Amino acid sequence: KVFVYGIFCDPATRRSILGRDIETGFFELSGYGLGIHRSCGFKTIYKDDNESVMGQTFEATPEDLLVMDKVEGVESGLYRRVEEQGVIFYLE
Q1: Does the structure show a pLDDT above 90 at 43?
Q2: Is the distance from CB of 39 to CB of 76 less than 8 angstroms?
Q3: Per-residue pLDDT tens for 60-74?
Q4: Residues 59 and 65: beta-carbon distance below 8 Å
Q5: pTM for the structure as a whole
Q6: How far apart are CA 15 and CA 28, in angstroms?
């Protein structure tokens, strides 16, 4: 499962980027807070044991993750993919 908290929460955006409708569920990622990325001004999450971030999860295929890596700028170092608490998410 992948955890999303930004643009991928919007069904139309998700469909446009991933090419299909995807059913989501709600998820609370504990131990993280929501803020603004230092480099680009987009939403980002950061480690904070006293906070949590509400978002959505969905079953992502390996192909979905490759597309999401491109959108999130993983190759350029903007975000990195992390797996924790049973979900994959993107972190500054």
Answers
A1: no
A2: no
A3: 999 999 999 999 999
A4: no
A5: 0.91
A6: 23
